[in-house]
Amino acid sequence: MRAKPVAIGVAAAGVVLALVLLLVGTWRVAGLILAIQTATEPPLITLDRASIDPSVVAWAETPDVPDTVAADRVATAYAAAWEAWSDALASGIADDLDRSFSGPALQSVMAGISGDGTLGQDATGHQLTLDFVHPDGWLIVFTDRGTVIERTWDGATTTLREDYQVLMVQDEGRWVIRQIVRIAAEGA
Question: What's the predicted TM-score (pTM) here?
Answer without folding.
Answer: 0.67
